[in-house]
Structure formats: C-alpha cells, structure tokens
Protein: Acyl-CoA synthetase medium-chain family member 3
Amino acid sequence: VKIVDVNGNVLPPGQEGDIGVQVLPNRPFGLFAHYIDNPTKTASTLRGNFYITGDRGYVDEDGYFWFVARADDIILSSGYRIGPFEVESALVEHPAVVEAAVVSSPDPTRGEVVKAFIVLAPDYMSHDQEKLKKEIQEHVKKTTAPYKYPRKV
Structure:
C-alpha cells in the first residue's frame, strides 16, 4: 500500500494523495481484478502499478498511514481540500456535540463550504444557540486548520 499522485507516482511522507494497492507485477490474492463488462470503470481504478481504493490519505515519517476521506467526499472550498471525517471528529470532541455529520454546501464565493449537522447533548439544548454555534466553530478552528470549520451549522 502506498500514497500516490495523479500519475501513480509514490508520494513522500506528509503529502496527501490517493491510497493505492500495488497490483503490478503481482496482484495480491483476493484483490478485485476488474468490473464485469465495464472496461472504462476498471481503467479508472488503475493508475500505473496501483489499484486506487477511492480513499485519500498520507503516510507519516514513521510509516503509519492516515486516512483523510473518501476521494468522492472531499469538500473543495476556496481551493482547500477538506475531508468531512476530520471535521466530524473535531466536532464530536466538543462536549455539546453527541453526533455530527458534515457535507458540502454550495457557496457563491468559495464554491463549497462545510455544513455541519449536529445532535446536541441534552445539557446544551437550552443554551443560546447562536453563542453555542460560534463556540463550536471556534473549537473546530483550534482543533483542525482554521479554514476547515463549518461555516453553516
């Protein structure tokens, strides 16, 4: 398993790319070989010597792999690539948030923005909603990169 770029080249540690499983010269036993009667779809999953899983990630300096998001779940906001999983993880770390889901929302200026749907903990249901929203947004800014916070909650 490697992290590869759009041309199938292996990326160095710390660079985000597509997660690929090396299939050439020897395909791992049990790994998908092709889509039946769909060579175009099959070709879209192969890049150089790699089968592209559809996931994005990076490998750190110690060789550990880190999942970022499904490639088709990425939110593109003002040129930044944002994985919903990371934002959802930051949201549920806040004591007011029991569950969270993050999606892309159209935006005329940024193209897309992060929109969060959250389930509040019972103790927070009576809090001032606007103040709590800003508090949760600030929490995400501090937990992740500031541009990843949900602009719509």
